[in-house]
Amino acid sequence: MAGRTKKLTTVSYGILGLLGLRPHTPYEMARQFSRSGTFWASAESVVYNEPKALVAHGLATAATETNGGRRRTRYSITPAGRRELRRWLADPAVEPQFQFDAMMKILFSDLGDKEDLLGAIKAMRAWAERTQAGAAVITHDYTTGTEPYPDRAHIVGLTQAYRVGLAQMTLQWADWAERQVRNWPDTRSGPDPTDLLTHLGTGRTPW
């Protein structure tokens, strides 16, 4: 769009998408990000500030309202915002960019000790368990009629199926990885990796 000075991010489009469903307050948007953050994880401060940037670009509007004596801002999408959202939806999707702190620690664990490595694996397991629990909450809300977007169950079902599958795979990997590492003398030496790498080269997982 002419005059736009800031490149929109995945978070920007996530917020535009929410506004495309209906007007939202920053609190409501932050809640949705926290509920399904596997795909669009972001600091809460970013979720609160990004709508202001969308307003500056003419993609959203802001209206102040009072509720019980408290003032809050409710954002709505503009026609220009809908056009930009539609353009983004039609564009080819870029590759995912994963930033797993625990997995990075596993990658460089031979520079640390075995307990550090086991701790990182434990963190991956904990993330997967939280992800499964979050998906269960969303499923419960849809099945009990308490979900704020009840007519989107078919779309949410697609994304939640991937989310649950990713969590299940991570849990299986964590169990397997922990069994492997516990048999290592330390992080700088382990079993001959030839068999494992050959197995992975076939496109199959060892767990």
UniProtKB/TrEMBL annotation:
Signal peptide: none annotated. Residues 102-180 form the Transcription regulator PadR C-terminal domain. Pfam families: PadR, Vir_act_alpha_C. Residues 184-207 are annotated as: Disordered. Residues 15-86 form the Transcription regulator PadR N-terminal domain. PANTHER family: TRANSCRIPTION REGULATOR, PADR-LIKE FAMILY, TRANSCRIPTIONAL REGULATOR YQJI. This is PadR family transcriptional regulator.
